[in-house]
Amino acid sequence: MPSMQNHSTPKSDEDLQKVTVGERKPHNAPVTLLEYDPEWPNQFDREASRIRSVLGNKVLQLEHVGSTSIPGLCAKPIIDILLVVIDSADETTYVPDLEKAGYTLRIREPEWFEHRLFKGPDTDINLHVFSEGASEVTRMLRFRDWLRSNNADRDKYASVKRHLVQRQWRHVQHYADAKSGIVQEIMERANSVE
Fold it and tell me: Where are stretches of biased composition, namely Basic and acidic residues (predicted)?
């Protein structure tokens, strides 16, 4: 999921390591995009059921986000999941339960909405955790919903993604950061319709 942070310059290895839990290994390869797969929502549903069974009423909101949630859009074959909890900074309330279920905490970003990112136990997922009320939650959902209903912007976004995957990327985050300009452009249109 590309963020709305200013990423005109790729983050250094040191900056990326600061937010990474454990060792961060360079990608040093192109990013793989696949055409939309109608199985992706089913993968989300299975993972969402597992998360709900592990966290119960600690789950305030659970959404399929990112490119795999948008029919007709090419995507990296990674299911992005948005989980909203009361306070993502209070890791004791949810991290141990997720870890017992096989999820691995990989990213901790206290300066960016107290974002946490987990990798899944057996499905290629990015589980993004935010606190209730974080504006990034609204932005992610608006971006998803706009691309689901706006073919022109979905096609434009796909075109930029296809262009970017022709490059080698030291880190996949650099690929995500390179999409920030088109994401911001699309968000401006989506926000102007309110």
Answer: 10-24
Q: How far is CA 31 from CA 54, 131, 140, 185, in A?
A: 32, 30, 21, 22
Q: How far is CA 157 from CA 7, 10, 112, in A?
A: 17, 20, 24
6 found inside a domain: no
Give the Cα separation of 124 and 119 in Å (integer).
Answer: 7
Question: pLDDT (tens digit, 9 = 90+) per residue, 21-79?
Answer: 777 676 566 789 999 999 999 999 999 999 999 999 999 999 999 999 999 999 999 99
| CATH number for 141 | 3.30.460.10
Residue keyed to tokens 């974080």: 134
Is there a domain that residue 1 lies in?
no
How far is residue 9's CA from residue 25's CA, in Å, rounded to a whole number? 19
pTM over 0.85? The answer is yes
Task: Give dist(CA 20, CA 5) in Å, integer.
Answer: 17
Element (H, E) at 26: none
